[in-house]
C-alpha cells in the first residue's frame, strides 16, 4: 500500500512539473526564429488620451504598439516643450509605453513630447524616427510650423538625419550648453518640419553631431544656422540651412609624437597662416632643423640634426605670435631606425602619359647616386633619364624620361643609392609600371563669365562624389580656363565666392555670426570622354541659388 502511495505522489509531482513548464513557456517572450530580418519600427495602435487632444487634464498617457518595445537613451532623446521642472517618467511595459506627468501643467498651453529615437522594438532595435505626442490644456492647439532643407555647405549634398532645432530668442543662451526641447531630424532628402509651434521670435540651427547628446560640440560636430532671429506669426516653409565645420576658436595641438626615426610630428586644430617652428630649449638645436608643413598648414614634420637632448621644447608660431610650446623627451639609450622609402604618383601601375614620374621620399634627401639607379625599358637598360629635386617640396624628386607607348618599365634604385638627412639610407626600391594610353585622357575647356570684376572667385573641378578637388584656378575676370589632360571620368565644377580674396574656401563661425563662403555648383556634370576635348560655358550667378 505504501509503495502505491509513493508512486501516486511521484506521478502527481511530475504532473505539476509539466504543468509549470507549459505555463512558463506560454508566458515567456520568445524571439521569433527564422524568416527575414525585421527592419520596420513599431507602429502605434492606440493613444489614450488621443494625440492632438485639447482641454487636456490627464496625469498619465498610454501608447500601445503592435510589438514589444524598449526605451533607448531616453534621457538624451526625450524632451518636452515647454520644459518642466519635474520631467515626465517613461516606462516601457511589453507593447505599451506609459508617460507619467509629474509636474503641474500650464493653462492654455500646447505641449509637445518629442521622443527622438527613444522608442525601439525589443528584438532588432528599430527605432521610430521623429515620433511626437501633442496636446493642449486649452481649447486650441498651437498650429504654426517651420520647414525647409539642410545641405552641406561644401558639397551641396542634402544632409540626412541632421538635427534641426529652434530656440525661443529668450532661451538662445542655452545653445551649446543644454539640449533643445523642440527639434526634429531631416529625412532622406534633407527636408525637415517642426509643427505645433506658438507665435514667438526664434533662432534656428542644424546640427550634424558625433556624440548624440544634441548639444553642439565645436571640436567634433558640424553646424548650420540662420544669423538673424525670425518672428513666427505664420507658417514658414522656405528655410535653407548649410552645415559646415567651424575652425576651432582656440589653437590646440591635437597630436604630437616623437617617431621611431627621430622625427617629430604635430597636428593642429587650426589652419595656420604664416607658421613657424622654433626650438627654444636647447637653443643650439634650432639651427640644424628641417621643417615641412602640409599644404593647409594644419600639420607638420620636423627633423632635428642633433638628437643628444634629454628633452626639447618646441614653440609653434603663427604670424609672429607664439601659439603654444610643447616638450618632447627621450632617453639617451634610445636608438632610431632610418630607412628611406619612396612613394609615387602612379595610378595602380600606370603612369599618366602627360606627367613625369614623381618620387616622394619619407626623409629630406641630400644626395642620390645616379650610378646606382637603373631604368629597364622592356627589360633593356636605358640611359637619358634625369632626377630633379622639387624646388617647392623637400621630399619630392621628378624622374624624367621620354616614355614610350606599350613598353613595360622597371625602375630600380639600388641599396644605399639615396642619402638622406642624418645619413639615412635606402634599401633597394623597385617601381614597375606601364605608360598609360594617351587616348584615355582629354581636356576640358571652360569659358567663364564673372558677374562682378571687383570680386574674386575660385573655379574647382571635383570628382564624381564631390569629395576631392582635382583641379583649381582663381578667377578674376571673364575668360577661358583649361583643365588639360585629365583621366576620362565624371567631374563637377563648382564656384567658390572668395569674399576675402585669399584663394581658399573659408568656413563660418557661429559666435561671430559669420557664414561660410558661398559655393555654387554648375548643375550639369562635366563628363570627360577619352580622347575627346570638351568645351563648356559657365555663367557665374551674382548670388548663387540656395
UniProtKB/TrEMBL annotation:
It comes from Pedobacter cryotolerans. Pfam families: Big_5. It comes from the Bacteria. This is SbsA Ig-like domain-containing protein. Keywords: Membrane, Signal, Transmembrane, Transmembrane helix. Residues 38-137 form the SbsA Ig-like domain. InterPro entries: SbsA_Ig. The chain crosses the membrane at residues 12-30.
Amino acid at each position: 500500500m505504501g509503495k502505491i502511495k509513493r508512486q501516486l505522489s511521484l506521478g502527481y509531482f511530475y504532473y505539476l512539473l509539466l504543468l509549470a513548464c507549459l505555463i512558463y513557456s506560454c508566458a515567456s517572450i520568445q524571439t521569433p526564429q527564422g524568416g527575414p530580418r525585421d527592419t520596420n519600427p513599431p507602429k502605434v495602435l492606440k493613444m489614450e488620451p488621443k494625440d492632438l487632444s485639447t482641454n487636456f487634464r490627464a496625469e498619465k498617457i498610454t501608447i500601445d504598439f503592435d510589438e514589444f518595445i524598449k526605451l533607448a537613451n531616453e534621457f538624451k532623446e526625450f524632451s518636452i516643450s515647454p520644459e518642466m521642472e519635474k520631467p515626465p517618467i517613461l516606462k516601457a511595459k511589453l507593447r505599451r509605453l506609459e508617460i507619467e506627468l509629474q509636474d503641474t501643467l500650464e493653462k492654455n498651453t500646447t505641449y509637445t513630447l518629442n521622443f527622438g529615437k527613444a522608442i525601439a522594438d525589443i528584438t532588432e532595435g528599430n527605432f521610430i524616427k521623429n515620433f511626437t505626442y501633442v496636446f493642449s490644456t486649452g481649447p486650441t492647439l498651437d498650429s504654426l510650423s517651420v520647414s525647409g532643407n539642410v545641405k552641406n555647405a561644401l558639397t551641396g549634398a542634402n544632409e540626412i538625419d541632421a538635427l534641426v532645432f529652434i530656440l525661443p530668442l529668450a532661451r538662445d543662451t542655452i545653445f551649446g550648453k543644454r539640449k533643445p526641447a523642440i527639434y526634429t531630424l531631416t529625412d532622406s532628402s534633407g527636408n525637415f518640419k517642426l509643427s505645433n509651434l506658438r507665435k514667438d521670435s526664434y533662432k534656428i540651427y542644424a546640427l550634424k553631431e558625433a556624440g548624440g547628446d544634441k548639444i553642439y560640440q565645436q571640436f567634433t560636430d558640424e553646424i548650420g544656422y540662420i544669423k538673424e532671429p525670425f518672428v513666427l506669426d505664420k507658417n514658414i516653409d522656405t528655410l535653407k540651412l548649410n552645415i559646415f565645420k567651424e575652425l576651432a576658436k582656440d589653437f590646440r595641438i591635437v597630436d604630437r609624437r616623437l617617431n621611431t626615426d627621430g622625427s617629430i610630428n604635430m597636428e593642429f586644430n587650426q589652419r595656420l597662416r604664416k607658421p613657424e617652428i622654433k626650438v627654444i630649449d636647447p637653443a643650439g638645436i634650432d639651427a640644424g632643423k628641417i621643417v615641412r608643413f602640409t599644404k593647409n598648414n594644419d600639420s607638420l614634420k620636423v627633423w632635428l640634426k642633433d638628437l643628444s637632448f634629454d628633452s626639447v621644447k618646441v614653440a609653434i608660431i603663427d604670424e609672429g605670435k607664439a601659439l603654444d610650446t610643447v616638450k618632447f623627451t627621450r632617453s639617451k639609450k634610445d636608438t632610431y631606425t632610418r630607412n628611406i622609402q619612396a612613394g609615387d604618383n602612379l595610378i595602380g601601375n600606370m603612369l599618366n602619359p602627360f606627367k613625369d614620374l614623381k618620387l616622394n621620399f619619407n626623409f629630406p634627401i641630400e644626395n642620390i647616386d645616379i650610378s646606382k639607379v637603373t631604368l629597364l625599358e622592356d627589360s633593356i637598360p636605358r640611359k637619358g633619364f634625369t632626377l630633379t629635386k622639387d624646388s617647392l617640396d623637400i621630399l619630392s624628386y621628378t624622374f624624367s624620361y621620354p616614355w614610350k607607348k606599350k613598353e613595360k618599365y622597371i625602375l630600380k634604385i639600388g641599396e644605399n643609392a639615396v642619402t638622406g638627412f642624418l645619413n639615412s639610407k635606402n634599401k633597394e626600391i623597385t617601381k614597375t609600371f606601364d605608360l598609360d594610353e594617351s587616348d584615355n585622357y582629354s581636356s576640358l575647356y571652360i569659358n567663364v563669365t564673372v558677374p562682378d570684376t571687383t570680386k574674386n572667385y575660385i573655379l574647382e573641378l571635383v570628382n564624381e562624389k564631390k569629395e576631392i578637388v582635382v583641379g583649381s584656378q582663381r578667377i578674376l575676370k571673364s575668360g577661358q580656363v583649361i583643365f588639360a589632360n585629365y583621366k576620362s571620368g565624371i567631374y563637377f565644377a563648382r564656384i567658390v565666392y572668395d569674399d576675402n580674396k585669399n584663394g581658399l574656401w573659408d568656413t563660418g563661425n557661429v559666435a561671430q555670426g559669420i557664414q561660410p563662403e558661398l559655393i555654387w555648383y554648375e548643375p550639369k556634370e562635366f563628363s570627360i570622354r577619352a580622347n575627346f576635348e570638351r568645351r563648356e560655358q559657365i555663367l557665374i550667378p551674382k548670388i548663387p541659388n540656395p
